[in-house]
Specification:
The structure is a single chain. With 482 residues, the protein is α/β, with parallel strands linked by helices. The chain contains 15 helices and 17 strands. Helix 3 (26-34) crosses helix 11 and helix 13 (313-325) runs parallel beside helix 14 (347-368). The longest helix is centred in the middle third of the chain and has 24 residues, at 267-290. The protein is globular, with a radius of gyration of 24 Å.
Amino acid sequence: MNMDPVTQHSAQLTRRHFFGRSSTGIGAAALASLLGGGATAAPGASGLPHFAPRAKRVIYLFMNGAPTHVDLFDYKPKLKELHGKPVPQEYVGGKRFSTMTGNPKGKLMLSPVEPFHRRGQSGAWVSDLMPHTAGIADDLCFIKSMFTEQVNHSPAVTFFLTGSEMAGRPSMGSWLTYGLGSETDNLPAFTVMTSVSKGTSCGQIFYDYYWSSGFLPSRLQGVKFRSGGDPVLYLSSPDGVSRPVRRGILDDLAKLNELRFRDVSDPAISTRISQYELAYKMQASVPELSDISQEPQHVLDLYGPQVKERGTFAHNCLMARRLIERGSRFVQLMHAGWDQHNSITTELYNQCRDTDQPSAGLVMDLKQRGLLEDTLVIWGGEFGRTPFIQGNIKNRRRWGRDHHPYAFTTWMAGGGVKPGITWGASDDLAINSVTDKVHVHDFQATILHLLGIDHERLDFKFQGRRYRLTDVHGKVVKGIIA
């Protein structure tokens, strides 16, 4: 019987030789991108959800670099009155800021760069910088009393996404996939996409540990979709390898891996088997997912003019909707460029232009499809920006704001959250959270609660200790739950 060259070569390998070669051959190609990818369709941890969930899935629009709350959502008339005057010491005394600010004594207050107006029936304050977000204000829950403990980007992002400022803990998407399982067997349950505005000078690095599975099984790690070429590395078969041949290789490889698993009981082997299978299925599902040619023009228009350009935030928002329609549980979009130490009057406008319409369009698209009620959409960064200036107040083009952890704004929509409300408040200079304060762990506990999870009961034993996303902290913010 005539065999194709790949099948013939595989038949000539001994079992020991095949395992030795797999670390640098087919195995490495798949493992390099998919060993830690999304889980295949499977139940989650035993006994979950703990109670009836309000949300089934999450789209997290994470704004790397920290959007300026005082210029976008947290309107404070007193900032106008004090513009150009020293920050009152009683607001900042004893507080820790980044090394770029150091001691804030003598720093000058800076008013918002664009006007604010009340929006919708809710009367939420939104800057003219965000006209599309303003248009959906009645669908949003603004949390204006967020605060964190971190003053630098990477630890602060890691804290939000993993519950610890130290890299190595499982990310939120991994925890949710571990707890609730997957609703799809041909796409990752946890997907990540990144973007940055063109020409920005203040982009942040996207570290892989922002979507790591940490000490959870590696199959729960987020799968990153790329902006160019194949969306996922090594997804395409090599030239000359047909789909039936690929299927045959995977079947034989699975049998060998199963034999090895019986010998050594290494859980990485079972992960490898499941991820090879997911990769094979993604060869068919990802091209269909990525083809937006059948999307009606009126839907594309919701997301703005960049929606057809791969790698843009607009395109990623549309892909997020298509992913959750097909069963993905957690989609994490990360957009960099908000770190405006000396570009509030220039690059802030670019960031708003590139993210405002897609974010609002995503909410509207989900709502008109009946998906918003059980899809939780989150928009926010790792902290806020200082209400006082960084730079020379006489040089408007170089105005900037430094990192500010003590008060900032996040919004949420859908997924069982009360629409059209504002929760909590900062003081009259937007420097300190003062009413209904929401810590990062409270925020995480609330997200888990909306998905039917008691954050104190979702844990994993590692090195003799039981860990959870919220560590030993966190209280559910019940006032924002519908």
